[in-house]
Fold this sequence. Notes:
- It contains 1 helix and 3 strands, in the order E-E-E-H.
- The chain is mainly beta.
Amino acid sequence: MAKKSVASLQTGSNRLTKAINMVKSSKTGAYTFVETIMVPEEVNNFFNKK
Length: 50
């Protein structure tokens, strides 16, 4: 599984991070990318969930 936190974004007083996770499909075996923008404290939770 590929995990990467790519960018730190700053909007006003909020700091945000864009996280990209590569997920393998159980049906086809192909990989897809899941991208989300969240607060930096939630990045580890995003990567640890299955």
